[in-house]
Amino acid sequence: MPDRSTAVRQGMLLVCTNVDPAHEDDFNRWYDREHVNERVAIPGFVSGARYQTTRGSRRYLGLYRTTSLAVFETATYQQALQHPTAWSVTNLARMQNPMRRVCSIEMGDRSRNGSVVGAAHAGDERDEHRRDRDCQTGL
C-alpha cells in the first residue's frame, strides 16, 4: 500500500443543486448533452456521473473524478470555468442552493463498481457559506 502522505491523490469535484421544476427539462438536457461532456474532455478528468435523489435538500448530484487535485488549477480547467457557453450561463443561473466541493479521494476499492459515496465535511459554518457563495459563479 502506498504511503498516503506522499502519494498523488485523485481528485473529486462534487456538485449538489436543485433547479426550478419549470426549467428542469432544459437543465437536464444541458447537463447530459453539454456540461458533463465538456468537463470530462478536460485533460486530467477521468469520469463524470450524475445522480438524482427522490429526497434530500438538493435533488441533483454531479461527481467528477480527476487524476489529481492539480487538475483544478490547470489553464484548461480555468478556461472552462471563466468562459462558459451561453447554455451554461443560463443553466448555472437556474441552480438553486448549489454546493460545490473539490475533494481528494482518500480511499477506494477499484475491484468493485459500486454506487456508494461517503463524504466528510470539516470546517466551520463561515467556510460553508463562503464556499456556497463562491460555487454559484461556476462549476
Record the strand order, biggest sheet: 2-3-1-4
What is the helix fraction of residues, given as a range?
A: 25-40%
Major beta sheet, specifics?
Answer: 4 strands, antiparallel
- Which fold name is given in CATH as the topology? Alpha-Beta Plaits
Total domain count: 1
The helix count comes to 4
CATH class: Alpha Beta
- Strand residues, percent: 15-25%
Number of distinct beta strands? 4
Topology of helices and strands:
Blueprint: E1 11-19, H1 24-40, E2 45-52, E3 60-66, H2 75-82, H3 86-94, E4 95-104, H4 125-135
Antiparallel strand pairs: 1-3, 1-4, 2-3
Helix pairs in contact: 1-3
Question: How does this model look, in words?
Answer:
With 139 residues, the protein is of the alpha+beta class. It has one domain: Alpha-Beta Plaits, CATH 3.30.70. It contains four helices and four strands. Strands 2-3-1-4 form a four-stranded antiparallel sheet. The termini are far apart. 14% of the residues are buried.
Quick description:
This protein has helices at 24-40, 75-82, 86-94, 125-135; strands spanning 11-19, 45-52, 60-66, 95-104.
Supply database-style keywords.
139 residues, alpha+beta, Alpha-Beta Plaits, four-stranded antiparallel sheet, 4 helices, disordered C terminus
